[in-house]
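Records of this kind hold a single protein each, on a pair of labelled lines. With that in mind, the following record should read easily:
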Amino acid sequence: MNGTAVGTPQTARPVDARQDAHPGPSRRRASSRVGALVVALFVLAAAVLASLAIGSRPVPPLAVWHALTGGSVPAADAAAVVDLRLPRTVVGLLVGAALGAAGAVIQAVTRNPLADPGVLGVTSGAGFFVALSIAFLGVTAPAGYLWFALTGAAVTTVAVFAIGSLGTGGPRPEQLLLAGMALSAVLAGVVSAIRLSDPRRFEALQVWEAGTLRDADWHVVLPALPLLVAGILLALVIGGPLNLLALGDDRATALGSSVTRTRITAIAAITLLAGGATALAGPIAFIGLMIPHVARRVMGPDQRWIVALSLLAAPVLLLAADVAARLVAWPGEVPVGVVTAFLGAPVLIGLVRRGRLGAL
């Protein structure tokens, strides 16, 4: 590598050189990043406890602990915590982590700060295939949505990247964004037409499309768990190649990275993460858009740290939104997707107005 220093990009080597010459700031930066992860972990633990304790039947934190460990608690408290809120909280953790990591990978691979699974049409593709499964195969249980949602997410992701890559120069951020928005609009229109053909049959789809954790159970979680874990591992593995991709295709290739392999791996990760999350809880907007921006401001441009913090911070936001969803219409509740949209829209507008959408 030293022999190629003159001909290699100027943005990567000087950073390494400065770090070697002045290791102090680098160590302080690494310490602050680790500290941010530790803080996020504690906040996530508090969000999990709130998710288990708060609802139409409040359960004290000590009773939550006893219910989880088999201690002596009223049967109603044990049923509320173990049978209802525990699977719901686990789904919230998985879906939040998957959406956060998927958003970070999508924004990095498209170099587009406005990209997320919803904007690129990935969730619309998952919903479209779920609607097809209901209309033509009679699938009605949420557990049956999983493979159709994954297939729809995969097909849509590949289609958006294929359309966005038309012409010379490979995929461009604006082309990917337009392709995703156009495909999402088309698929949403088709789903609406299918739903109107038999509104009674699609009542379950309407609840799922709003984005909810209310119907979470272990029969849905267990089949999706290996897929989400695989997606998270892929997102962590390609952090380094995504850092090189941020320098541009030519520079990434000159530094020994395979741009094609990075993009294929990223598409696989996005499919597993966004498709699995959508299958579990329906389309939930803004989580994958907001959290990577927060992570980027805290961690800097290194994609490895952005993905790591997104994995911890996104479930915090989703679980907090789910707790709020239980309280705002108590004793009923609203879909968590409505709460995340209510929170995410003004945050996004505020970020755009202040010019805080960092360049990728």
Q: What stands out?
A: Residues 75-110 form the longest helix (36 residues). DSSP finds 15 helices and no strands in the chain. Residues 160 and 299 are 29 Å apart (CA to CA).
